[in-house]
Amino acid sequence: MPTPGLAELHDEIVACRRCPRLVAWREEVAATRRAAFAGEEYWGRPLAGFGDPAARLVLVGLAPAAHGGNRTGRMFTGDRSGDFLYAGLYRAGYASCAESRALDDGLELRGAFMTAAVRCAPPQNRPTPQERDNCAPWLAAELALLGEAAVYLALGGFAYESLWRVLFPPPGRRPRPRFAHGLEVPLEGGRTVLCSYHPSQQNTFTGRLTAAMLDTVLARARQLATAGTGLSRS
């Protein structure tokens, strides 16, 4: 169950209407629906993060998919990217099952928390810089409540840039190393930023991101998350 702070934050995020373009798009998609999901009621609102409030690993994605999270109401749920990602999280011991189809499917994250840089589905999966900045306080608030987090796994370059801006706001912003799959950036307090290619269909279908590559990144995330804690995979 979420901590009281995360539960309250969830309600605030879900009620957000800061970005007119995103509000219009998410609600249009929810009203018109895709033919395959014509009989379903779409979520059509912003998405808060979800997972283990004591998570050592925090995954940061780009934004909900129009007919994935925007339909189901949960990050990476009900789309091909989520199919790929949750299968990897299950193999790594972070998810209770290998598929994420709906809010009531019983999936739980163990030692991990899932969130995103932008909380509403953007047209063509491309948020604007202003929309990213409008959402930044939500990411900052979640990270502040996830006090056990040791590894921040950015899924793609957009998530990496967004995460970096939250971790290092001006005037103390550090230079950001260039994004690369497998990049590790040590932070103060034994924390680490880790990067992976985004599990988009474009990346997984072309082989730019394979299951083996994702497994390697998640294994490294667990190593970093448990270093010096005496914890191990149960």
Beta fraction: 5-15%
Average pLDDT, all residues = 94
End-to-end C-alpha gap: 20 Å
Supply the number of helical segments.
8
Q: Major beta sheet, specifics?
A: 6 strands, mixed
What is the CATH homology-level superfamily? Uracil-DNA glycosylase-like domain
Structural class: alpha/beta
What is the CATH fold-level name? Uracil-DNA Glycosylase, subunit E
Biggest sheet, spatial arrangement of strands? 1-3-2-4-6-5
Q: What is the number of independent domains? A: 1
Uncertain segments:
230-234
CATH class category label = Alpha Beta
Helix percent reads 25-40%
Specify the CATH architecture: 3-Layer(aba) Sandwich
Question: How would you describe what is shown here?
Answer:
The relative contact order is 0.15. The protein has one domain (4-226): Uracil-DNA glycosylase-like domain (Uracil-DNA Glycosylase, subunit E, 3-Layer(aba) Sandwich), CATH 3.40.470.10. The chain is α/β, with parallel strands linked by helices. The chain has helices at 4-14, 20-32, 69-72, 80-91, 129-145, 157-167, 201-206, 211-226, and strands spanning 50-51, 57-61, 112-116, 151-155, 184-186, 192-196. It has a six-stranded mixed beta sheet with strand order 1-3-2-4-6-5. Helices cover 38% and strands 11% of the residues. α4 crosses α8 (211-226) and α5 packs across α6 (157-167). The chain is globular and about 45 Å long.
